[in-house]
Design brief:
Length: about 270
């Protein structure tokens, strides 16, 4: 009996494979085979030949079994090489420092650019101007310009209170405040010491607290844009003003009658 060795390439480090008998040796040992056994032997013979051809065509390489999920026999390989030195934190810190320095430099540059552009003559409305502003300005003009700038606000002692544009609505509101002692008969107000209307003032709105929601709050329907409009919408104030007006007219008529009577007696 002749025994042949399989032509498979051996993997380095693997155990030696046992000798295998070929299908020709099996046929020679036994002569009385059935048709089914002969067919299976022929199939094994063809299978061995195909394996030999595949083994000869593949290069001599080392094949490691790959590990699948749940397969403990597989070999898990490292995804990166460990140098044994911890340098990751230093690198990340260095990158963060570089980014912070770059942001700081860019912020300083933008601030400096904004400061320089404030002194620039060319502004967004430069095309609308009839002539460019002069480069050299005399001392007299500079003093005049500074005076105009100072008059725009009440100064640092009054927290730079601005001088708003005087409109008819603001004038009427200021006049009402000047005559506040005649507004409400139930309250006594000190007489105003204004000889003329103020130049620097600000108008604000009083926001009532949550405890005054039902007691001292003006509903939204009764709220108006100006003080004069609120007074004109108040019915009690209207009645009071009508009564006062009729009293003043009666006094004037009485004075006119007295004057006429005196002039008649003299003649």
């Amino acid at each position: 009996m002749v025994k042949t060795r399989s032509t498979r390439n051996k993997v380095p480090g693997s155990s030696p494979q046992p000798m295998e008998e070929s299908t020709e040796d099996k046929v020679q040992e036994k002569s009385d085979y059935t048709a089914e056994e002969l067919a299976s032997l022929a199939f094994d013979h063809i299978k061995d030949k195909i394996k030999d051809k595949l083994d000869h065509s593949l290069p001599d390489i080392l094949i490691l079994p790959g590990g699948k999920e749940g397969d403990k026999r597989g070999l898990d390989l490292a995804s990166r090489i460990d140098p044994g030195i911890d340098i990751g934190g230093e690198r990340e810190r260095g990158e963060k420092d570089r980014v912070l320095k770059k942001d700081k430099v860019s912020l300083e540059m933008t601030k400096r650019q904004e400061e320089i552009m404030k002194k620039s003559v060319i502004t967004s409305d430069f095309e609308k101007k009839e002539s460019a502003p002069p480069v050299l300005v005399s001392r007299y003009k500079l003093k005049k310009m500074r005076k105009v700038e100072r008059e725009k606000s009440a100064g640092s002692n009054w927290f730079d209170m601005p001088a708003p544009e005087m409109t008819e609505e603001l004038k009427n509101d200021l006049k009402v405040l000047q005559m506040r002692e005649t507004l409400d008969r139930s309250h006594h107000y000190k007489k105003s010491d204004w000889k003329k209307l103020p130049k620097y003032f600000q108008v604000g709105r009083v926001i009532e607290g949550p405890g005054e929601f039902y007691s001292a709050r003006i509903p939204k329907k009764q709220r108006k844009r100006t003080i004069v409009e609120e007074l004109l919408a108040d019915q009690d104030f209207k009645k009071y003003q009508k009564r006062k007006f009729s009293e003043l007219q009666a006094k004037k008529q009485a004075l006119l009658r007295r004057r006429k009577k005196k002039s008649f007696t003299k003649t």
